[in-house]
Amino acid sequence: MTTFAIATLGCKVNTYESQGYESALLAKGYQQVSFKEKADVYIINTCAVTNTAGSKSRQKIHQAKALNQNALIAVVGCYVQTAKEQLEQQEHVDILIGSDGKRTLADRIEKALQGEKQVNEIHDVRALRVFEALPIQHFEHQTRAFLKIQDGCNQFCSYCIIPYARGAERSLPENEVIKIAQDLCASGHQEIVLSGIHTGRYGRDINTNLTQLMKRMCKEVKGLRRIRISSIEMNEISDELLTFMQKEPKIARHLHIPIQSANNEVLKNMHRPYDVEWFKERVKYIRSLMPDISISSDVIVGFPQESEEQFVDTMENIKQMELSFLHIFPYSRRDHTVAATMSGHLENKIKKERAARLAQCSKALYTAYKQKFVGKEVSVLFEKEKDGMLFGHTSEYLEVYCSMDVKALHQMKQVVITSYIDDKLIACDVKEVPHETVSAI
């Protein structure tokens, strides 16, 4: 039996696409093994968001060759799109597919194994206008399912290569989204995570929008208990979307909204389309509608020319907004971007030190946010057994542990959070709430 292994770098969109490759090859009768094992076929789903990501993509190619020098190697995705010449001249892999033609990967692998000569598929990505779907019916190793509904970016932030790697914005037609969502729920998934490069811009190219899509999903997808938005820009969050979220309990009470910096001068240098004051006002408005909502964010520290004062300003503004938690990224130079040509690049030591300080800030904010939920009833989708208990996430994406029957795995249950111990939220079945006072420890 032909064996294959997949290495996935980068974002949740890549995770979704790798699931598509896996499903297509399994349907052809291939057997999946770990990327650490010898395989007949290796697929490297690459990332190009930083130069480091590109380096890791090349390392995976070398790892595959070391494991089996006779294996067929297929390299796919953003790094292929942005480093075609280097890969063709230096890496000598069998199949190269950029940001288009991904749906043909399984067929190309099969033909290559049969001896057919391959033609690398790397097109002018900015000319792409049609969304390439990868229909997936089940995520074998996950309770929640991802559904890629959008691709591409038209924003051109100064630090980012993604518009050149992923192309122009394009959306999956509503009816196709609904069909994939129905298949996912029919196979047992109760939560679907809507993902994309700019998920909030869904539908702009096909005369619809994200709110309209989610309304249809709530009405038409049987068995769907929760919809989560993977990430969304603040300027993509309409009042219509917020009003719908407020009224519809199926929409997760968590918005991951990248701010990247909370200092106006740095935001201007980043070419971000807002200022701190406006962002703060939108956070305040969102909380006026949904007081307990989790609002998390991405922050880049050590951007070129960022001063100590500007960094402190960012940290203080984040504290004032009481964001629930942060994903923190020390700035990484990316070739072919505006920021790469700027003066004032900082030493790695400074970037790491600032990242560590902001991480402490994030930890304190997250602890305070989690402690607010002690004593509250929440819905948890239990995903696995962990530390002798069942483990899952709430609508707000809080991690919760509960002593429940294993039959509750992969199910959504109502529980009451009884304590916060050793950085863990502990809960019990809502039917078994103790009469004594719950407490945070």
Question: Keywords, please?
Answer:
single chain; 441 residues; alpha/beta; Rossmann fold; Transcription Regulator spoIIAA; 4 domains; five-stranded parallel beta sheet; five-stranded mixed beta barrel; 19 strands; 21% strand; globular; S-adenosyl-L-methionine; tRNA processing; Elp3/MiaA/NifB-like_rSAM; metal-binding
Present the secondary structure layout.
Layout: E1 3-8, H1 12-27, E2 31-32, E3 41-46, H2 51-67, E4 72-77, H3 78-82, H4 84-91, E5 95-97, H5 105-113, E6 145-148, E7 150-151, H6 162-166, E8 170-171, H7 174-186, E9 191-195, H8 210-220, E10 226-229, H9 239-247, E11 254-256, H10 264-270, H11 276-289, E12 294-301, H12 308-321, E13 326-330, H13 348-371, E14 377-386, E15 389-394, E16 399-402, E17 412-421, E18 424-429, E19 439-440
Parallel strand pairs: 1-2, 1-3, 3-4, 4-5, 6-9, 9-10, 11-12, 12-13, 16-18, 17-19
Antiparallel strand pairs: 7-8, 14-15, 14-17, 15-16, 17-18
Domain MTTase N-terminal: 2-114
Domain Radical SAM core: 139-368
Pfam families: Radical_SAM, UPF0004
Total helical segments: 13
How large is the share of residues in beta strands?
15-25%
The spatial strand order of the largest sheet comes to: 2-1-3-4-5
Looking at the structure, what is the overall shape? globular
Q: How many separate domains make up the residues? A: 4
- What share of the residues lie within helices? 25-40%
Tell me what the CATH architecture of the largest domain is.
2-Layer Sandwich
Over all CA atoms, what is the radius of gyration? 23 Å
Give me the count of strands.
19
**Averaged pLDDT, please?**
92
Largest sheet: 5 strands, parallel
Q: Which topology of the largest domain does CATH recognise?
A: Transcription Regulator spoIIAA
CATH class descriptor of the largest domain: Alpha Beta
- First-to-last CA distance: 54 Å
- Unreliable spans: 435-441
Helix/strand class = alpha/beta
